[in-house]
């Protein structure tokens, strides 16, 4: 994974105030707001804001919709479906969640996740929640229940991190909407989405609700005057939002493959390769999963392996020159070889 700046300090950030609107805004609006700020706001400053949405499922950039979401259930229950530009896994959010967004300078993945997760965990500890850090990007209670998870992506010269904090949620809708990877649940020793997550309302003092937590995040992680967006800014965000609402973006890539092989890799996530051959050579290749990448992993692998003879020697030679760890966090050439040449799982 590229590490352009391992010592960046994202906090204190400048808080961003978005003008209210008469109509409810969906997750796609706030995802577009992150991108708008990353492309237009002063690059020498970090920016932070929190937001909430109605019942929504947000997919990671590289995930297959049909594999991750019960689409019929979501439509029947009025759950919005959208996709973000960052990697990672699928999340359910509603009015009991606090969504947060950080836009900062170009930074190494590990240092940025550590700074962001520790900043959020510190707010929760001061509020009375016994939390620590776990796995790739999780804030968990002392009993292991997950209360916050994050994802990131890069734009030229900028890094964007966003997270979902679980104060409360409609657990029936969460369980019905998501189709989690069973291997991921087994790796954490749990049987269901519900048994993996925890609710902050069950451990925080009475009176420390969503509004209080949002204030605490702002007061702790931000300083100085807020950046107040204008009506013109909001109009630009709405225009950018249309790229998030495009059916082609939400649906993702459809690919009729000759072969599909995948694995869950500790410290990386689920990685799935789909490819076609002409009998000898790879003619097309698609990468999906809940991994974190530098924004061009799928292109990088397709560029390296397309046209290669599907033999261990030639694929290993191609991968050795490509350095997968520079494109996908926690993925090595050996991991890719194990996936491509394993028996189908």
Number of helices, where a helix is a run of at least 4 consecutive DSSP H or I residues: 13
Secondary-structure-derived class = alpha+beta
Number of E-state strands:
14
The number of domains: 2
Strand order of the largest sheet: 7-8-9-10-6-2-1-11
Give a written overview of the molecule.
- This protein has helices at residues 27-40, 65-68, 71-77, 109-127, 171-177, 182-187, 193-196, 210-221, 231-245, 247-251, 297-305, 312-322, 333-340; strands at 14-17, 47-51, 56-59, 80-83, 91-93, 97-105, 131-134, 138-141, 146-155, 158-166, 227-228, 259-265, 269-277, 282-289.
- With 345 residues, the protein is α+β, with helices and mostly antiparallel strands.
- It has two domains: 14-251, BirA Bifunctional Protein, domain 2 (2-Layer Sandwich), CATH 3.30.930; 259-340, Enolase-like, domain 1.
- It has an eight-stranded mixed sheet with strand order 7-8-9-10-6-2-1-11, with helices on both faces. The chain has a three-stranded mixed sheet with strand order 4-3-5.
- The model is unreliable at 1-6 and 188-192 (pLDDT under 50).
